[in-house]
Design brief:
The structure is a single chain. This protein has helices spanning 2-14, 65-81, 83-87, 93-109, and strands at residues 25-26, 39-40, 43-44, 46-47, 51-53, 56-58. By secondary structure, the protein is of the alpha+beta class. It folds into 2 domains: 1-48, no CATH class; 51-114, no CATH class. The strands form 3 sheets. The protein has a two-stranded parallel ribbon. The protein has a two-stranded antiparallel sheet with strand order 2-3. The chain has a two-stranded antiparallel ribbon with strand order 5-6. Strand 2 and strand 3 form a beta hairpin. Helix 2 packs antiparallel against helix 4 (93-109). The longest helix has 17 residues, at 65-81. The protein starts with a helix and ends in a 5-residue tail after the last helix.
């Protein structure tokens, strides 16, 4: 597995780029053997249980239940942050609906294919 990490690192260095070990993470999917220790140069790549990539939660089992829970939490937070708006009586319900669609529903559905 270490050789799979060395090849892109060597190719990147040919173009003046380098891998930053502090920004690299190791996520093992369905790995039953002992956890390997991968290195970039002399630094060990950190092993994580899940990580966020382009706003979506990636889990080792490949299931989306963790991602759905995270999306619901983020949408609930967005809704709660607009609490002051929902309580105002001078704002028409149609405007509140448009704000909901733009600020809450978009957070909930981010990354979903339609």
């Amino acid at each position: 597995m270490q050789s799979l990490l060395i090849a892109p690192s060597n190719n990147a260095s040919m173009f003046g780029m380098c891998f930053s070990p502090s920004k690299c993470k190791l996520l093992l999917q369905d790995w039953s053997a002992s956890t390997p220790e991968l290195r970039i140069g002399s630094e060990v790549v950190e092993r994580v249980d899940n990580f966020t990539y382009l706003g979506s939660l990636i889990s080792p089992n490949g299931l989306v239940s963790d991602e759905i829970s995270a999306r619901i939490r983020k949408a609930r937070l967005a809704f709660a942050n607009l609490r002051h708006l929902w309580r105002r009586r001078d704002i028409p319900l149609s405007i509140n609906g448009r704000v909901y669609c733009a600020a809450v529903r978009s957070v909930l559905l981010y990354g979903c294919e339609t």
